[in-house]
Design a protein that fits this description.
This protein is α/β, with parallel strands linked by helices. The chain contains six helices and four strands.
Length: 136
C-alpha cells in the first residue's frame, strides 16, 4: 500500500467510519465490534481516490441498510441485539459479495473493482438481510 492509499484509508477511518459504526450500533442496539481487512480492501494501482465511493457503495451502506431492515420492528431488533456479536469485513471473495453468519459473527467478503449499480446494491442489501434473517 503506497502513500496515496494510506492517506485515503486514514481519511476514511477518521471521517466516515465513526458514523458508520454509530449507525450499525444503533441498528443493533449495542456496540458491535468490526474487524476490517483494510490491506485487502485497499487496492493498489490508482484507486485511492475512489476508496470512499467503493467502500461505501459496495459494503458499508448495504450493511447498514440491511441491519436497519432486519431491525425494523421489536422482534428484529431483539434478535439482532441477542445474536450479532461482531462483524468481519474481508476482501478475498472472487465475486461481488459473499455473506455468512455463524456463531454471532457476520462476515462480508467482497471484491472491489467498480462501484455497484443501484440494482447490485439492492441485491447486496437483500443478501445480507436474508442471510441474517435465516439465522436469527
Amino acid at each position: 500500500m503506497g502513500l496515496a492509499e494510506k492517506r485515503a484509508l486514514k481519511a476514511f477511518q477518521d471521517n466516515k467510519l465513526p458514523t458508520i459504526q454509530a449507525q450499525i450500533d444503533a441498528a443493533v442496539g449495542k456496540p458491535v465490534p468490526m474487524t476490517i481487512d483494510w490491506e485487502k480492501l485497499s487496492l493498489d494501482g490508482g484507486y485511492a481516490d475512489r476508496y470512499e465511493e467503493l467502500w461505501l457503495a459496495s459494503c458499508f451502506e448495504p450493511l447498514v441498510t440491511a441491519l436497519e431492515e432486519v431491525g425494523v420492528d421489536d422482534m428484529g431488533r431483539e434478535a439482532l441485539h441477542e445474536s450479532l456479536q461482531s462483524i468481519r469485513i474481508l476482501g478475498d471473495y472472487a465475486h461481488a459479495l459473499k455473506v455468512e453468519f455463524d456463531a454471532g459473527v457476520l462476515t462480508l467478503d467482497f471484491r472491489l473493482w467498480n462501484a455497484p449499480t443501484a440494482d447490485e446494491r439492492k441485491d447486496f442489501v437483500k443478501t445480507i438481510r436474508t442471510t441474517l434473517e435465516a439465522a436469527l
